[in-house]
Amino acid sequence: MTAEPDGPEDRLRRFATIWSRAVFPVTSTSLTRPEFEAQLMPLARRLSDALLARTFAAAEGQAVGAALIDAHCTDPEALSRTLDCVDAYLVLYCGEDGPQEALRTRSARLQHAMAAGFAQALRERTLAEQEAISRAAMSARSLVAEALHASEARFRAVFEGAAIGIGIADLEGNILQVNGALMRMFGGSEQSMRGRKVTEWTHPDDAPQVWPLYEELVRGEREHYHVEKAFYRPDGTALWTNLTVSLLRDADGRPQYQLALMEDTTERRLLNLRLRYEATHDALTGLPNRTLFFERLEKALSAGEGQRFGLCYLDLDGFKTINDSLGHAAGDRLLVEVADRLQSCATAPGEMVARLGGDEFVALTTGTDTEREVDELAGRIMNALVTPISIDGRDLTVRGSIGVVEGPAGERGPAEVLRSADITMYRAKSAGGNRFELADPEADARAITRHGLTTALPAALDRGEFFIEYQPLVHLGDGSVRGAEALVRWLHPQHGVLGPDRFIPLAEHTGLIVPLGRWVLEQSVRQARLWQERHADAGPLRINVNLSPCQLTHPGLVQDTVDILERSGLDPDALCLEVTESALIGADDDLLKPLRRLAEMGVDIALDDFGTGYSNLANLRRLPVSILKLDRSFTQSMQQFPADPVDLKIVEGIVTLAHSLNLAVTVEGVETGAQAEQLRILGCDTAQGWYYARPGPPERLHDLALVDAVG
């Protein structure tokens, strides 16, 4: 046993050796096998370089394919063996330690380029041979009277020695002569072919123009024509050829014979079909892939008037969990089984199933009644997934979320349709999964807008598109302004001013809430310090800033707050951080620790939206809060007179409980004077709402505070 090659050059030479041994037996060359290997070595190096190049260059593969023709590897078997060799050994010997899946994909693309280069070069060489033969034939026929024997010998040499098939027939279509290459193509004898008529060689796959071109030629209206044509061999198999037919005239220019030149392209065609199949089908499941699906979808969407389409976009629920727990091999077997079931759901004419990638599949139906058909198709898919799938002895329950899009052809493009189906599928998944939803243009528009806002958020913060408005906090006892809540706004270039409900959830989802929240805190604290400096006679004004759940878990919360307070010179007791009740439900000591540290520094902590989180009131004792912000839902009935007595009792009970725990009570959403008076009687401490002022610029708070101070 010999040792494996050590360096890249040794591995490259080993690849060239394997390649030469595979191809040499089917190559017409006077070189020895080692000499032929030396001729392939530069080509092997080009393939290796193209495999490892940063960007894929199809021209390299095409050049190697063309070089095989120059090396006299013209037999289609030489190309087939070359591609098999490249497929099996190029990544193994030349891939080094690169990502194997990416290298195999690159190798497949190189094979396709090599086949294209080989075919083009062989075609050019064949056409050159055909032209030489035609010239020789014409020359031979025109010189019959002057040098019959010499011309006949020359023509016979070309006729018999050519690598392409040649046949001569009269103008009635009777075959007069065929050469050895043509007989080998058809697998018959000269006697079996001579005497037959050209018009007998029809084939179901003949292009419409084949026989009209033939008729024009034998009538003398055309000198030659070139087509791709199939023939039946005696054993019933198909022979595919590049066929060139030329008209031969006598010395006086009258049509006399027809000359057919045939290049056998059967192997090349089968290879191209194989490469086409591999390029348009998923390697794991055998289903059509994204490329072929888009071709079919585009064709369906460009169909004539009255045609419609229906599309089901399926994503498996919880597939990542199966991959993580059982491994990717089990996940692959699951996908294969799902693909088989889906394929059995789409067997009617006009229906197809494809795999887009991962655990995403699509089913397409076309026709004139797809509104009904696509609903039935989605139902069949859901039913097909009901039966558990057995993997490694375990029965796995598979569920899926489906987005359904249906409509007339000609109104939308493939990308738009697939985007709508994708959005609808995620809507089904968000609703709990294991269901299908129909596309809704309004929901699509909202999702597209959300996506646009999400992608624009980072740049918006850098460009300074955010600003802060302030809503006063008013003391219910004496009506004085005690501070304000900072409310961030986004001045979007297209959508105008957006409230926090439009972008805060997106910022939390992307993680941008942490830098955005830090910016809001810094700007608000700086503004509070300015209020203190410019309006000291108005009394201390407190600034309330909201904290999101993501900010609560960020390790830099306490240090960021300390740094911001120190840089601005604002006392900690002038800052209140608002945390929603739902964010603290079930909070453990680790989550509460940062809030406790801030509370110990003197920062007030307010429990926002109190009453909406269904928390246990006993938990209030362990939370480091000093203020309860009562949700507006408890006080809405107080806008009417008389107020709901049950709501009055609830608010009274909450206020009493809060005061017994030394907690202040702030009420949100106060909109009428009667409401404010009732809350004052119930003992609430501060309030905010449109009755006092809408959120606005900081200067408005200056004015309100000054009015209170003067009054």
Plain-language structure description:
Helix 5 runs antiparallel to helix 6 (144-161). This protein is 50% helix and 20% strand. It has 711 residues and is an alpha/beta fold. Helix 15 links the parallel strand 11 (399-408) and strand 12 (435-438). The strands form 4 sheets. The protein has an 8-stranded mixed β-barrel, surrounded by 5 helices. A 5-stranded antiparallel beta sheet has the order 2-1-5-4-3, with helices on both faces. The chain has a 5-stranded mixed beta sheet with strand order 7-8-6-11-12, sandwiched between helices. It contains 24 helices and 21 strands.
User: What is the global morphology?
Assistant: elongated
What share of residues is helical?
40-55%
Total number of β-strand segments?
Answer: 21
Cα distance spanning the termini: 103 Å
Total helical segments = 24
Q: Main sheet: which strands, in order across?
A: 13-14-16-17-18-19-20-21
Low-confidence stretches: 1-5
Mean pLDDT across every amino acid position: 85
Radius of gyration: 41 Å
Which structural class best describes the helix and strand composition?
Answer: alpha/beta
Main beta-sheet strand count, sense and barrel state: 8 strands, mixed, barrel
**How much of the sequence is in beta strands?**
15-25%
